[in-house]
Amino acid sequence: MGQAMFAQFQRETFSSESTGMVASGVAAVHGISGPTALASVTSRPTATPWAMFLWSLLLLMSQARDAHLECGERPMFARGAQYSRITGGIEAGVGEFPWQVSIQARNEHFCGGAILNEWWIITAAHCFYPEQLPPTDLRVVLGTTSLSSPSLEIKGVTTIIRHKDFQRVSMDNDVALLMLDNPITFNELKEPICLPMQPGLSQWHKCWVAGWGQVKSGLNQPMETELLKAPMTIMNWDKCFKEFPKLTKNMLCAGYENESYDSCQGDSGGPLACTQESGKKWYHVGIISWGRSCGLKNTPGIYTLLENYHSWIKKVTELEGRPFRAEQMVGTSKQKAKVSRASEFPKPGSPTLWLLLCLLPYATF
Asked: Which residues form the Peptidase S1 domain (predicted)?
């Protein structure tokens, strides 16, 4: 509804004694005070229990919607999801990586990715090079650990945005964004991952990679249908540079000394998810990019250092009309507890407010 309809709605509600309660609600939202607001309050009928129930229900709906905007959490796995060992890695638990997605073409998995918010998936630019796949040929599978499940949630893609300075030879700036054709409805199986708010790799305590890629090197190796995970440790950049001279400052190295854990073909684009020692949130620290082979002992894999791309993500998402704000996704339970009752009221122009204003006149009789 536009501003004109809202203005007409205000005139009708203020002129009617029977709908004075709605007028007082509008006055409260827009900060109206004085005799007009007081008259509307004193002339309204007493709210019925049904009206109070409706009011509470809509506020709870609004708060539940906002709660799922928080990133980096995995409530289902935190309650005790189990995993089992399988050949070549560790099977991920249900809900353990709720931000993980499978990017597919012609119904076949070829790259991983991670949920940034309800509209955006972040992945690797090299997944779309050299073949220029049209967005309509892609689909994103989310909310599952098994690609063989009979019921998969699938989203279409409207836009592919590769970093304009991506270089295939050096693999520098290996980052891309996919815009979905309709927004994700978050739940315990589908949650966004946080982006790091402060630079520096020393802050990360525990890291994992996950994917549906190959478990052995080779062009003819089959892809996995179950999501596998492997523990990672971030390695010293200077030490890694000696082994990989084409390493740039937009990259980081991660591996697992004396073990064969690594990412492989088909895992590209997936996140290196890390948490801080004192926190329970998970952050997207690096994008799986390239390496020498799969699972060589004492040989790290190379990842796109995501902390270098905050401004790029902000800029391109704004240009596409679906802006992403990393700082809005990160919150704490303490911050939520400090929210005042006034700030819980639905925002002007929001669907929740319109529903509230339209239904309350019928609930007060």
From this structure: 86-318
Q: What is the DSSP string of 118-145?
A: SSEEEE-GGGGSSS---GGGEEEEES-S
pLDDT band at 70 (very low <50, low <70, confident <90, very high): confident
**How many Å apart are CA 233 and CA 129, to the nearest integer?**
29
**Residue from 62, 102, 126, 289 carrying the catalytic annotation:** 126
Tokens for 239, please give them: 């030490």
Which residue, among 249, 161, 163, has the nearest Cα to 199 in the 3D structure?
249
Phi/psi class of residue 77: alpha, beta or left (left: φ > 0; alpha: ψ in -120 to 50)? alpha
Q: Dig out the tokens for 165 from the structure.
A: 């300075």
From the list 178, 173, 133, the residue with the least C-alpha distance to 155 is 178
What SS3 state is found at 90?
strand
Measure the CA–CA gap between 304 and 311, rounded to whole angstroms.
15
174 as an active site residue: the answer is yes
268 is catalytic: yes
Determine the Cα–Cα distance for residues 88 and 103; give it in Å rounded to an integer: 22
Which one is catalytic: 24, 40, 62, 268? 268
Domains (range + CATH), the chain: 89-324 (2.40.10.10)
The residue written with tokens 């809202």 in the block is 6
